[in-house]
């Protein structure tokens, strides 16, 4: 026992305590204590931990993701404080307007979708009599149809790497019905939400920091984050706030040429339509110009179309880039196009299900094989998400038992979102020094705040961006969480924040009043 | 209409056909056909597609994933041929023994788990009277408990980036019960299966090809694939087939030193326990040596423990590396350890649910923040998978209504797997020139085939690896899909294949007989 008089005595005493506490546990049964001790080094100096910020992958360090950044960490802390000590803040709940997460703000799921998911999760109840009383007839029928599309009806098995073939058939049919042009199930890759699909494409496209991806500014930070993680260069193009976040092909060309002259090979163009965080819906004419540009410049068009169901103004309609390309006569051999879709958005907002797909067209068979291989390394996306993606692209139809209730739920949500967008837009627009474009689509408003110099200086003194300073003050005063514009990118010297349109309708008046009061106080404090 | 007499006439005629077919569709309603045509370029030469194998990320090209590689593509083709033309092959079904996917081979899910998942998917039925007749009382109670742990009971909302806190509490309690040492829910990251967790750690650790990861050979190709995709170097250490795939610390040290002398910074050690594809279960003494080695050499220990429930021999017990480290007196500050767990394996085999977690211990708070950030970029893992991960770590207990049926289902599966492992192992061992170690755990056998020179030469003539040659012949003759050892790595000059132990028990005799006949014929054909 001499060994214990060593400089590692205290660690070993700790061990002894563990041993005493665990002496009857399973793991010690076959191992005498002394053997255990004798296998230990007697005086190993404690090594430095193998990982520090200096030694992790610098691409990880570089990556930023504002939507769940510092402000959300602060919000979570405040929420815990409110829970532990009610009344400790001038508000009694945290209102998360930072993220497009409808069901976290009490939006209910679409009944038909959930019925089918539950039945596919537990098919053993499908032919029980009680099931008829609990589930609608078309949900039961749809569950049988889906199970029949799955080899062995095994919803617990890995599927084909691209997703269950029968579900891809349904999705392809849904795309055809939407676009009026053919869709091939073999072009569809089902994914756990749209994010992994975006990562997959960035991984394929980016070889080094000399490869650039044209991205809108402001952009959804998934793009900046995934480009950073894969070691590429984000080539920004600016949306024109003055024309309702217009996307000008001349700006694309200007930025492409600038990138080229800096030695960057631009490989792809990201377009988010409807826009995130900017909410604009592109006009067809504009989309045709974008397609033409990609074709001419040899760029892959990465079309983020996850908000395709979220359009709130009668004068705008969503058109997929695939439909636009095909309507221009461009087929498989003319343009490389990836369309991203997600079950997290739309009227259903099933974020937690992590379903989505990408439709990959205009790539050569050998490149498609490489995409298939990368998909295979992760085996497959979750089957519930796959099923939900098929339901979203093939909801109940006229004559189905659920059709009316489905339409009522869907229209109720979409029309309420339109009203909420308008109410919040008007409220922002009425604030001193704030201007706010319409949310024609998506789930966000991105108002511009003209901050007084005094506020900008106060922010600088705290080494924080002026819009982040504003958002922190807003959170601390009202419990409302919004994301500073600097997390999305903006024209230098302008300041914005992103606010979802998702708070429940009956809460909007109180939110508007809290916002207005805060803003007035802020301006009074900092007015030049 | 003069334009149509151009060299792009045929493409435009294709367009005209589209327009005719779609002339009543929504997209044309606001767009006169001639406008559409006039916006087309008149004679743009067709540009080369933006992507080819020469211009994609070479890391993607380099990555290989044998488990779903060429042989599976061939199997899928044969399956389609059988479907289109029954009797076209000397077998009437394809038997997928290439992948640990139990439910694809008719294993049924655990009833209690599926009841809870279905109820969480469709909570609206929880308080209906029919539900009592369809679901067990403890499943209903558990569903309520889980819903109460989810803010707003919203199973359709994004969760915390690490997963729902209440579920992480349950998992941490399960780890504590398993190990007899504390577990912190803040160390747990819920993921869509174990694969994304492994990617996340590789992304964190690998800065360039100068960073190495020590991996067993043979290994599960997720590791070689993710190291290739993230641009690092796989530093192999060989498991000793002669001692039942023994893992020698002296071999680790030898390979580490060799890597160092080649300018590689080795950052982590991957250990798969129970082994995949090799099926061995590590002894405690061996695990202590491995922990000591990582500590001494400053390596992160990446412990793939997804087969922790799959141990089939009475003389071996699974011990987590965390328990081993803690029992040696090593705490948070002594060793950086990541344990991967998945709902895809175990007795439940819920591959399609894509649930899993990693427990990350011994990292500094600022590095943990970086891991959190990377997790946040993908928002969260799917909620059904999160719920299932909590159920797996906290199944029904004595006294619960489902307890007995749960135990019967679990024990039935595990004891059958043990019998199947033994039957297949014996069958392999009886084949001429084949030797096969025990599957002490996991779901695989990895028999060695001593191939005749003539077979090796025949393979070489076809530019294929000799074990791939054998596996292709096996598939074409019997419909049995196994993976060539070359997909996992093996001592040069030795040949193996991986075969799962998952075919249903009543099929095993037929499989053994098909295998035996094939092998005999193969050896007769190629015997030197």
TrEMBL record, chains A, B:
Its EC number is 2.6.1.2. Signal peptide: none annotated. Its cofactor is pyridoxal 5'-phosphate. Pathway: Photosynthesis; C4 acid pathway; Amino-acid degradation; L-alanine degradation via transaminase pathway; pyruvate from L-alanine: step 1/1. Keywords: Aminotransferase, Pyridoxal phosphate, Transferase. GO terms for molecular function: L-alanine:2-oxoglutarate aminotransferase activity; pyridoxal phosphate binding. The keyword Transferase applies. Pfam families: Aminotran_1_2. It is an enzyme of class 2 (transferase). Gene3D superfamilies: 1.10.287.1970, Aspartate Aminotransferase, domain 1 (3.90.1150.10), Type I PLP-dependent aspartate aminotransferase-like (Major domain) (3.40.640.10). GO terms for biological process: L-alanine catabolic process. InterPro entries: ALAT1/2-like, Aminotransferase_I/II_large, PyrdxlP-dep_Trfase, PyrdxlP-dep_Trfase_major, PyrdxlP-dep_Trfase_small. Residues 150-507 form the Aminotransferase class I/classII large domain. Belongs to the class-I pyridoxal-phosphate-dependent aminotransferase family. Alanine aminotransferase subfamily. Homodimer. This is alanine transaminase. It comes from Carpinus fangiana.
